[in-house]
UniProtKB/TrEMBL annotation:
It comes from Roridomyces roridus. Residues 408-450 form the MYND-type domain. PROSITE patterns: ZF_MYND_2. SUPFAM superfamilies: HIT/MYND zinc finger-like (SSF144232). The keyword Protein biosynthesis does not apply. One of its GO terms (molecular function) is zinc ion binding. This is MYND-type domain-containing protein. The keyword Zinc applies. It comes from the Eukaryota. Keywords: Metal-binding, Zinc, Zinc-finger.
Length: 486
C-alpha cells in the first residue's frame, strides 16, 4: 500500500490535524469548516500526506449509498455535497501543483468515480432530487481529474480498465454540451475514450447522439475539430473510419468539412508525416475528391489544404517514407488527379504560388529525390509553374487586347476582338455569337453582374465566381497567344 494511505488511521496524523480530521470524518457540524481549514492549509505549506487520508475518508460514498437504497431516498444532503465538492476542489489543486505522487491518485480516483456514478444513478431514479446544478460540479471535477490522469501512465490503464468508465464519461459529456468549449476542461485527453465509446462500439450511437441535441451535429463537429483533430492522427483515425463507413453520417461528414476538417488533417500530416499511414487518413478523408468531382466545394477544400501547408506535408511524407507503398500510392494519386484540378481555380493558384517555393526547397532533399514519389512531384511542379504564369498574366495591367475569349464559360472560343458581339448594355462582355450571349444572360451569370459593370462598379472582391470565370478566360487567352507566339 502507498505510504500516504497508511496514514488512514487518524491517530497517526500530526496532533494539529487530529481534531480536524476526526470532525471531518464524522461529518459533524464542524466538518465543513474543518475541511475549509484544510483547504487553506493546503494552499499554504501543509503536506499532502496529512490531507489525503481525510479526503479519502470523506470521499467515501457508503453513508449516502445506504441512505439511498430505500425506494424513496432523501434529497441529496447539502452538507455532504459541500464536503465532497471541497474535496474535489482540493484534489484538483493538488493535481495542478503536482505535489502529490501520481500513485496516490490511483486510490483517490476510484472514489471520485464511485461518486459520479452514484449521482448519475441517483439522478436516473429520482431526477427531481438531484438536479443539474448538483451534478455539474461533480462532473467538472471528475473530468478534470480524469483528463489529467489519462494523460499519464500507468494511471491511464487503471482508468480505461475501470468497468463502466467509458459509458459514464460519454454520458456525462452528452449531458453538459455547454462545457465542450470550456477552455479549462482538457477534453482532448479524453477525446479518444469518448470516440471509442460513442462511435466505435456502435456507429448508430452517433445518430442518437446528434439527435439528442438541437444542433448537436454542429457542436460535435466543433468538438472533433477543436479537441480531437489537433491532438494526434491516432485520435482522428478511428473516428474518421466510423464516419466514413456509415452512409447515414454523410451529412455529419459535410458538417465536419465545413468546420475545417481538411486543414486540421493537413496540419496533422505535416506534423506527423513520419507516422505510418498519416497520409492515408488525410487522402481518405477527402471523400468528395474520391467521387466524381464536385465543383466548387472540392476546390475550396483543396485551397484550404494548400493554405494549411499541404505541399510541405506531401514532401515531408514522401521524404520520410520514400518507399512506403501505401503512402506513396496515395500521394501519387493526389498529385496526379486532385491537385491538377486546382490549376484553374484562382484562390488555389494563389495558395500554390505562396507555398510552392518552400515546398520545392524541401523537395531538394536527397531522400525525397530518391523517393518513388519524385516523378509525380516533378509533374505537379511543372503544372504549378504553368499556373503561376497564368496568374502573372492575369495580374498584368498591360495585357494585349487583340483577342477576346467568349464570355460564355461553356464556350470559351477565342476570336479577334473586332469580330465579337458585345453585350448591348455594359458593352464590356464579348461573345462569339448571339446564342452565347443569350446563354450567358439566361443562366444568370451575366444578368447578375451586368448592372455593376454598366455603372462602372468594380465587382466585389468577394464575388469569387465572377473573378474565377475571368481567370478561366485569361488562361484560355494566354494559351492561345502562346501557341501562336503572340
Ligand atoms: Zn452586360
Ligand atoms: Zn461563344
Amino acid at each position: 500500500m502507498h505510504p500516504v494511505l497508511r496514514l488512514q488511521n487518524i491517530e497517526q496524523a500530526p496532533p494539529s490535524y487530529r481534531n480536524t480530521l476526526r470532525d471531518a470524518l464524522r461529518g459533524g457540524p464542524r466538518a465543513l469548516s474543518n475541511l475549509q481549514t484544510l483547504e487553506r492549509g493546503l494552499a499554504g505549506r501543509a503536506q499532502p500526506k496529512h490531507v489525503l487520508p481525510v479526503l479519502y475518508a470523506t470521499l467515501d460514498p457508503s453513508p449516502i449509498l445506504d441512505a439511498s437504497s430505500s425506494d424513496t431516498p432523501p434529497p441529496f444532503p447539502d452538507s455532504l455535497l459541500d464536503r465532497v465538492l471541497i474535496c474535489i476542489g482540493i484534489l484538483a489543486t493538488m493535481l495542478e501543483d503536482s505535489r502529490v505522487p501520481s500513485e496516490a491518485f490511483s486510490f483517490i480516483w476510484p472514489r471520485l468515480f464511485d461518486w459520479v456514478l452514484f449521482i448519475e444513478n441517483y439522478h436516473d431514479s429520482h431526477p427531481d432530487l438531484v438536479g443539474r446544478e448538483v451534478r455539474r460540479p461533480f462532473f467538472v471535477g471528475f473530468v478534470m481529474a480524469t483528463a489529467e490522469l489519462v494523460a499519464h501512465e500507468p494511471t491511464r490503464d487503471m482508468i480505461e480498465a475501470t468497468p463502466g468508465f467509458r459509458t459514464l464519461i460519454g454520458r456525462i459529456w452528452l449531458s453538459f454540451p455547454e462545457s465542450w468549449d470550456d477552455p479549462d476542461i482538457p477534453w482532448h485527453h479524453l477525446g479518444i475514450l469518448l470516440m471509442d465509446n460513442l462511435l466505435l462500439q456502435d456507429p448508430t450511437n452517433l445518430r442518437d447522439f446528434v439527435a439528442a441535441f438541437d444542433g448537436g451535429e454542429s457542436q460535435l463537429a466543433t468538438f472533433v475539430i477543436k479537441h480531437i483533430a489537433p491532438a494526434s492522427i491516432e485520435y482522428v483515425a478511428p473516428a474518421m473510419d466510423v464516419i466514413l463507413k456509415t452512409q447515414k453520417n454523410q451529412r455529419f461528414m459535410a458538417i465536419l468539412l465545413d468546420h475545417g476538417l481538411i486543414p486540421a488533417l493537413t496540419r496533422l500530416v505535416a506534423l506527423y508525416a513520419s507516422q505510418k499511414d498519416a497520409v492515408k487518413y488525410l487522402v481518405e478523408s477527402f471523400p468528395p475528391l474520391s467521387r466524381p468531382f464536385e465543383m466548387p466545394r472540392a476546390l475550396h477544400w483543396i485551397t484550404q489544404a494548400l493554405k494549411a501547408g499541404l505541399l510541405d506535408a506531401i514532401v515531408l511524407a514522401g521524404t520520410n517514407y520514400p518507399n512506403h507503398a501505401g503512402t506513396i500510392e496515395y500521394l501519387q494519386w493526389f498529385l496526379a488527379h486532385v491537385l491538377p484540378r486546382a490549376r484553374v481555380y484562382l484562390p488555389a493558384v494563389v495558395q500554390i504560388s505562396r507555398t510552392l517555393e518552400h515546398a520545392v526547397s524541401l523537395a531538394a532533399a536527397l531522400a525525397f529525390q530518391k523517393s518513388l514519389l519524385f516523378p509525380a512531384w516533378k509533374a505537379f511542379v511543372a503544372m504549378a509553374e504553368d499556373s503561376l504564369q497564368y496568374l502573372a498574366y492575369y495580374s498584368r495591367p498591360d495585357r494585349p487586347r487583340s483577342v477576346q475569349v467568349c464570355y460564355n464559360s461553356q464556350c470559351l472560343k477565342v476570336l479577334p476582338r473586332k469580330s465579337t458581339k458585345r453585350c448591348p448594355q455594359c458593352r464590356l462582355c464579348h461573345y462569339c455569337s448571339e446564342d452565347c450571349q443569350r446563354i450567358d444572360w439566361l443562366d444568370g451569370k451575366h444578368r447578375r453582374e451586368c448592372g455593376d459593370l454598366y455603372s462602372n462598379r468594380v465587382a466585389s472582391p468577394d464575388d469569387l465566381s465572377a473573378r474565377n470565370r475571368d481567370f478561366l478566360r485569361t488562361i484560355v487567352e494566354f494559351e492561345y497567344m502562346r501557341d501562336r507566339g503572340m
